[in-house]
Fold:
Amino acid sequence: MRSRVVPFWIGAAATVVLAGILSLGGANEYFYFAGYVVLQFVVLATAWNILGGYAGYVNFGTAAFFGIGAYTSVVLFKSLGAPLLVQMAAAAAVTGLLGFGTGLLTLRLRGIFYSIATVAVIFIAETLMINWRYVGGAAGLQLLRPSPMVPFETYTRMLFFVMAVLAVIAVSIARYIEISWIGRGLRALRDSEEAAECSGVPTLRLKLLACTVSGALMGMAGAPLPMYLSFLEPASSFSLNYSVVALAGAIIGGTANWIGPVLGAILLASMQQIVTVTISSEMNVLVVGVMLVVFVVAAPDGILGLIRKLRRPRAAPGSTS
Amino acid sequence: MIFSFQLLFEAIVFGILLGCFYAAVSIGLSLAFGLLDVPHVAHPAVLVLGAYCTYLLGSYGWDPILAGLALMPLFFLFGVAMYRFYYETFEKRGTDAGVRGLAFFFGVAFIIEVGLILAFGVDQRLVEADYIGKSFTFGEMRVPLRMLLAFGIALALAAALTLYLSKTFTGRAIKAVAQDEGALRLMGADPVRIKQWAFGIATGVTALAGALLIIIGPVEPMTDRIYIGRTFCVVVLAGLGSMTGTLAAGLILGISESIVLMHFGASWAPAVAFGLLLVVLGIRPQGLFGR
Structure:
């Protein structure tokens, strides 16, 4: 395990440097616009996987955390003119707290009950925002972007870089959780919560931790959204589409390993961008739905599982890693 | 806000009618999820699909109720096929069916929703029939005939299913499979075939409920999202698998929603079902009439 640590951090640093060079270089502005969305889904899928993949609690409420993150930013920006990093930190705090709250629900709710409860959180949050005049109500709120920070030419480029850094942070956290005792505990409680508790795994503490970290990362992914769009309204920021793409990204990539959601989200979100531009935006949701169903049915271990099968074609069926 | 007894009374009457309608749209889920333990998140999408099929038949001049009844056998077969597929790919393999089964039905819901958008566009659709625009007047109150219709059909559905589950052989077998699958197998019955049959009935009933949905008001492809809250709220509040409980839970939801609607306005109404759902899940997940 120790020998893999150095390559990972080199890779992480290289990604950040590459993103920095890209955002200062002279690609087409659309590249940053689309790249931001892809990176955002990398963060969302990775965050989803911390709870859904390692602990086996299916969270349909990604949109709630994402949207509340975005609205936290708007409130701070409108009231104090807070800079982006402060907005993101505050969003992480608020949605982390919300994650802790949904974590408390896991005390009583498992399986589909937990999932349905998280859907409820989305719609309640959306209704609250629709009825809150200060943030624009149902009509939404137009925002004026401040000028970008020094080295960046445009605000979109800066956001692209910020999201790339956030993606690297999210993946590093997910990887740390996966290889540390936390991940082992989460996997144990996924297989059998009673058995894990009996063997001395602090299941509640681990679940709360996973819910909080996962929620905070989702909120941070949503925090730059108002600045990215220069506009925010409830229906699209709390859209269930965010939930399905985060979940599909993780499941298509493979939930067992931190690289799975990254691969899945990049594949899915790039395809969505291409389909949106070439065919239509309805079609891109269809692509997500169809790919999710196909993978869940035909390749339950995702792309990672397929790769593993290719490497070891004669492995006994049913033996996972 | 001025409190008025008359307004409250009207809200309650309207809520009772609305509540029966909510029970009707949830009864299929009560069978599929409540009795069979299938994480059928796609139920609201199937409901909206039923509404759109009714709309399609309606454009050929079919009466919506007749269309709903005619769709039932078709949806029955669709349900049988869907359960068969779910069983073969998830339940049979056993381990980890939870996460993947949920993801599967979530994906199916999205496919149905986008399929409807691609086929019909995002505009609202409605059906026409003689009885849809009319209303009765009791004293100072106006009650739309379509709500009374939904009320009647909901009661008939709940009564028919309760009778079916308690009096017929297959109905009892469905209840048995929900209680103890292993025991049923020992008695020589095939639990998979019974579940398949029951899931078919659940989906068939949903077709008629879909017809009601489009009679009550205009429908758009995204309508299923709000009904995730309403249907699951009713089923969970009822306690899994109880038909009379479904009716009672529908009434509770209908009355609460209609009171909120009249006193706080339409923009708060969607949160009622989800709020109630969250409260029930947090305090009493086994529901009011749990098995």
Notes: Chain B has one domain: 5-121+134-283.
